Amino acid sequence: MFSTFSSPRARIGEVLAIRWKDVNFETEPPTITISGTVIMEKGRGAYRQDHPKTKAGFRTMKVPPFAVQTLQRRYSAKQPKPEDMLFPSSTGTVRSPHNFRRQWRDARAGSPFEWVTPHVFRKSVATLIDQEYSSKQAAAQLGHSGTAITEKHYIAKATQSPDLTAVLQKFGTASLSGPEGMSM
After folding, report:
1. Residue 129 to residues 60, 61, 108: CA-CA distances in angstroms?
2. DSSP three-state, residue 139
3. Measuring CA to CA, which residue among 122, 130, 125 is closest to residue 147?
4. pTM score above 0.85
5. CA separation (Å) from 117 to 2, 17, 105?
6. Domain ranges of the chain
7. Residues 30, 50, 84, 28, Cα dihedral to 10°
């Protein structure tokens, strides 16, 4: 359920910091605001920090319909208070990112999906958004302040060049007509 709508777009700590008051079903489409992150501190444990990792990390994201349906079912079943965590620990408190990572490892152990990590979701979403829109949109979705990190670490490098035969045909046609047909 966690990966269904949040993990691909946000860091684990950001997802674990989402409260029900950060979910807005009234907008069209509904949104989730990333306004904090979960921090682990020795002697204090896991707690919600009231700002994300970076300034660019604070963002309101539109939620796709499949995730809205999941959120609405969860909301109806739990009837949470606005301050309640979207993904609480088993005791209803802030869930530790370390515990989540362990649970995720355990859940996929021995399956064909052992290679799937939360980071794979972020990379997949960044690549898809880059292919459909741009690296700038991918960076904004992931909460990066610019495209450099997104392009270097998150967007898969193309293994096949795009179909540019039409523009290359223009080059070939211009070459056959001589230097005057070529613009330099």
Report:
1. 17, 14, 26
2. helix
3. 130
4. no
5. 12, 19, 8
6. 2-111, 115-184
7. -10
**pLDDT tens readout for residues 67-110:** 999 999 999 998 999 999 999 999 989 999 999 999 999 999 99
- For the chain, the residue count is 184
Q: Which residues, at least 6 apart from 136, have a Cβ–Cβ distance to it below 8 Å?
A: 147
Side chain identity, residue 82 = P
Are 38 and 86 in contact by the 8 Å Cβ rule? The answer is: no
What does DSSP assign to residue 51?
Answer: S
Cis before 29 (ω within 30): yes
How far are the Cα atoms of 17, 105, 107, 143 from residue 74, in angstroms, in the given order?
17, 24, 21, 26
